[in-house]
Amino acid sequence: MTMNTQGRPTTPAEAHAMSDITTVSGSRGLQQREDLIFETGCPNKTGVDLPKPKGTKSRLGGVTRKRSTDLPGLTEPEAVRHYVRLSQKNYAIDLGLFPLGSCTMKHNPRLNEKVARMPGFSDIHPLQPQATVQGALEMIDQLATWLKTLTGMPAVAMSPKAGAHGEFCGMMAIRRALMARGEIETRTRVLVPASAHGTNPATAVQCGFKVDEIKANKRGRVDMEDFRAKLEDSSDIAGIMLTNPNTCGLFETDIREIADLIHDAGGYFYCDGANFNAIVGRVRPGDLGVDAMHINLHKTFSTPHGGGGPGSGPTVLSEALADYAPVPFVVKDEDGFRLIEEVDGKGEDAFGRLAAFHGQMGMFVRALTYMLSHGADGLKQAAEDAVLNANYIQARLKSVMTPAFEGHCMHEALFSDAFTAEGIETLDIAKALIDEGYHPMTMYFPLVVHGAMLIEPTETESKAELDRFCDALESVARRAAQGDESMKGAPYLAPMRRLDETQAARKPVLRWTPPSPEQIAAE
């Protein structure tokens, strides 16, 4: 019997038996045990032995370090093994299906990485004379053209560094438009559906607005009756921040009416574009009446996701907001491409500067490479395949799990915890899924669904991989429905067992303290 047909043991007895195995080395099979680098290395050891330079004088002006930094020294093999072993403890999109809903953990084609490392893109500096980076500016302009074409919007701000930064950009453009109308003091209320992304209300407040929540209906979409009631006195309406497709993985079927009503009330329509991967090439947000929408390049056009690194969240703007886009932005004239850097002349209506420079070159290159390699038809197919994969997962699992809403979903499948036995929580399902070799899905979000489990497979997963994931989750779900108490102790097979995550967040141990001589003697 092959490994694929045999599967992994998942019954409580087998799981406990495997978790009880101990080894002298501390390793488990091919998973190597690894201590902290401070415990492994030695301050008096180094993998590189360099002679002290002769005939040189210190240029540190008398601030030379008087004592050792006590950084751990390792040989080259030790250093390589340390970080390789740590990497094996992380889950990654290159390792397996990454089911996080609302995050769109896409595969990053290696072609994108190769192009991003070309010298003309990777070796330039933002302070170079603009005449020496004409190719880079043209690339930014070409990417902007693609974004405007795909969204049906006339303008785009390229400088936002992330999705929330793009939200801030869009809402600041709305704020600037209200100032130009002389209504910034009176129009202070922003409507935010309960199914919107959590950063939306935070961004509205940060921009000086008050948030008024709109209820969700039984279909997981905007409750139009509640929405219309919010507009009965529209004199203070600044706009709406709506996510579409929303965080329930559903398309807002009343989107055109919502746009018309908010415009008739004198407000602007901000759309959270985090889920653009579900509709790119199929629907242009500009045709839906959207005034501003950020685009997470990593969620739709496959730039690296997460890790605190350089992100990018360009924000497209309608004709009503185009003049208020922040500086800098790229323009082309008879002398070639150049950046408008100041809030005067062509940039006199801009709401200001959002970032020090004009964007994230590496992210731009990767996104444009993805667009050019796929073409318009390929982008459309990617969206269709993402929706198909999500609906396949929903169809596979609906007999053992409880879909949050009836009917088809868009790019992500949402389940509630209604199928679980008393005492078993969503967290237990997530931890048990780790033992099956998968990163858990998004849990407890969106808040409109009790015990929510949000799964987004993206477009690149094969049917075989989807089946493999569904088999594992189905097994875990059946155990949850049966009230399997062993799930409360999962994970059993991970490098670390279940932790007190609240304590870890509130009181993190961020500093390594060397053991005292007494501790060493006791050992």
Automatic annotation (TrEMBL):
Enzyme Commission code(s) on record: 1.4.4.2
- Has the keyword Heme been applied to this entry? no
InterPro entries listed in its UniProt record: Aminotrans_V_dom, GDC-P_C, GDC_P, PyrdxlP-dep_Trfase, PyrdxlP-dep_Trfase_major, PyrdxlP-dep_Trfase_small
An example Pfam family from this entry, by short name, is: Aminotran_5
Q: Which reaction does it catalyse?
A: N(6)-[(R)-lipoyl]-L-lysyl-[glycine-cleavage complex H protein] + glycine + H(+) = N(6)-[(R)-S(8)-aminomethyldihydrolipoyl]-L-lysyl-[glycine-cleavage complex H protein] + CO2
Please indicate which superkingdom the organism of origin belongs to. Answer: Bacteria
- Look at the named UniProt entry and state the broad enzyme category this protein falls under: oxidoreductase
Q: Where is the Aminotransferase class V domain?
A: 184-306
| Keywords assigned by UniProt, alphabetized | Oxidoreductase, Pyridoxal phosphate
Glycine dehydrogenase C-terminal domain: residues covered: 382-481
Residue ranges that the Swiss-Prot or TrEMBL entry lists as coiled coil: none
> Which stretches of sequence are listed as region Disordered?
41-73, 504-523
| PANTHER family the record matches | GLYCINE DEHYDROGENASE (DECARBOXYLATING), MITOCHONDRIAL, GLYCINE DEHYDROGENASE, DECARBOXYLATING
Function, as annotated: The glycine cleavage system catalyzes the degradation of glycine. The P protein binds the alpha-amino group of glycine through its pyridoxal phosphate cofactor; CO(2) is released and the remaining methylamine moiety is then transferred to the lipoamide cofactor of the H protein.
Q: Under what name is this protein listed? A: glycine dehydrogenase (aminomethyl-transferring)
- Provenance organism: Henriciella pelagia
Source lineage: Bacteria, Pseudomonadati, Pseudomonadota, Alphaproteobacteria, Hyphomonadales
Q: Which gene encodes it?
A: gcvPB
